[in-house]
Write a structure and sequence with these properties.
Shape: globular
Oligomer: single chain
Order of helices and strands: EHEHEEEEHEHEEHHHEHEEHHEEEEHHH
Number of domains: 2
Number of strands: 16
Strand content: 15-25%
Structural class: alpha/beta
Helix content: 25-40%
Number of helices: 13
CATH class of the largest domain: Alpha Beta
Distance between the termini: 34 Å
CATH topology of the largest domain: Rossmann fold
Largest sheet: 10 strands, mixed
Strand order of the largest sheet: 3-2-1-4-7-9-8-11-12-10
CATH superfamily of the largest domain: Vaccinia Virus protein VP39
CATH architecture of the largest domain: 3-Layer(aba) Sandwich
Radius of gyration: 23 Å
Length: about 425
């Protein structure tokens, strides 16, 4: 059983996916929403996992990492926000680098430095690969260099959940870091980078891709000085890649598409009247989701035309859902609107249907307001993807255990 520390836990998507494999135990989970007095997500997490591990509702920056050492975690997981990861030298120039205060990635690195887990699995929005816009790839390069400096190899993959059989077209980047002394890294050291990404690496086994030629690939070394990366480095990153021995290889890969779950398969019957649209809301949705060209004036006085294409209205029930946002359920362009097949009337999705889009059990977020239920699901990840990754981590771990059986470490007894 692998011991897990879950950061930025939300309502527990990582935990649900990992524990679904029966091979993980979350020993400590942290969820803190600094801008809200009511900690709805934490309350949901604590209720659903009552009596299992330690539940922390505190600012992660105030957590003493040394207090977690006795938990001996094998893996750290978390979905963290996309922020500015730039670094600078300390004022004295002698105490290493300093990341921007409040950037949560550095909290992950702080805990990883002290706890030295075998594995780290993180999730983020896919624009991370291109940020910031004026120095493309800088932030992701800083992250890779940070893992490198801690003694980890890294794989990443941008995954659209619907392309691997899930109910939502949600694209996210997943980052898997493995400590370099783990047998999986040593066993694969002789393999080409492209082979790792296509057939033999961490993501390739769980999320198969087409073995076809692509013109979008390249490799390069990472600059040794992370401050120099922050100041000057810029690279193009594709949807898949690997970092080993300070060398990065990245390639645009095409998934082998699996049949997705459709919206029609996850909708409820007997839906409450409050989810149906009145005439006013219906008119607003028709406008928001329709095509439009609007003349606007920029701050400098320049006139321009804002153009926006139309969206399906209502949503087709024979396709998976679009990416769910935290504004789901409100009158805005991104909310899902369907024609209920039972009543033939137009309505928004219910909170339970949104839970199903992410693969959560029905009524998982019950107990908070509908607005917060939508918000939490807009922030959540797709549980089915994490369960696949969990199974793959167990396979990686098994390679390590088999190696120990074949070559048991010699114990030196005190004289």
């Amino acid at each position: 059983m692998l011991k897990v520390i879950e950061l930025f836990a939300g309502v527990g998507g990582f935990r649900l996916g990992l524990e679904g494999t029966k091979g993980f135990e979350v020993v400590w989970g942290n969820q803190w929403e600094p801008s809200k007095k009511a900690q709805d997500a934490f309350a949901c997490y604590a209720r659903n996992f009552e009596g299992k591990g330690i539940h922390s509702n505190e600012d992660i920056s105030t957590v003493n990492e040394k207090n977690l050492k006795d938990l001996v975690p094998d893996i750290i997981v978390g979905g963290f926000p996309c922020q500015d990861y730039s670094v600078a030298r300390s004022l004295s120039g002698e105490k290493g680098i300093q990341g921007k205060k409040g950037v949560l990635f550095w909290e992950i690195m702080r805990l990883a430095t002290e706890l030295n887990p075998k594995y780290i699995l993180l999730e983020n929005v896919d624009r991370l690969l291109k940020s910031p816009s004026k120095q493309r790839g800088r932030d992701f390069s800083i992250m890779l260099a940070s893992f490198r400096d801690l003694g980890y190899s890294v794989e990443w993959r941008v995954i659209n959940a619907a392309e691997y059989g899930q109910a939502q077209r949600r694209r996210r980047i997943f980052i898997f870091a493995v400590r370099n002394d783990i047998q999986f890294i040593q066993n694969k050291a002789h393999l080409e980078d492209s082979t790792m990404l296509r057939t033999e690496g961490f993501f390739a086994k769980a999320f198969p891709v087409l073995d076809e030629e692509t013109k979008k690939f390249h490799g390069f070394p990472l600059t040794e000085d992370i401050v120099d990366i922050s100041d000057n480095f810029s690279k193009t990153y594709y949807n898949s890649g690997i970092l080993r021995n300070n060398r990065v290889y990245t390639e645009e890969l095409t998934p082998i598409i699996e049949e997705p779950i459709t919206i029609g398969e996850i909708i409820q019957t007997g839906v409450d009247e409050k989810y149906y649209l009145n005439e006013n809301a219906l008119e607003k949705f028709e406008y928001l989701k329709g095509p439009k060209k609007i003349e606007r004036i920029a701050a400098n006085g320049h006139k321009y035309t804002f153009s926006e294409g139309g969206m399906a209205f209502p949503e087709p029930l024979d396709k998976p859902g679009r990416t769910m946002l935290t504004s789901e359920g409100t009158v805005n362009r991104s909310s899902h609107v369907i024609r209920d097949p039972e009543t033939n009337r137009i309505r928004i999705l219910t909170p339970v249907e949104c839970e199903r889009l992410n693969g959560f059990p029905d009524r998982w977020t019950e107990g908070m307001s509908d607005r917060m239920r939508y918000f939490c699901m807009g922030n959540a990840l797709v549980v089915g993807l994490i369960e696949r990754m969990g199974k793959r981590i167990l396979e990686v771990e098994n390679e390590d255990l088999e190696a120990l059986k074949e070559h048991p470490q010699q114990l030196s007894l005190p004289v």
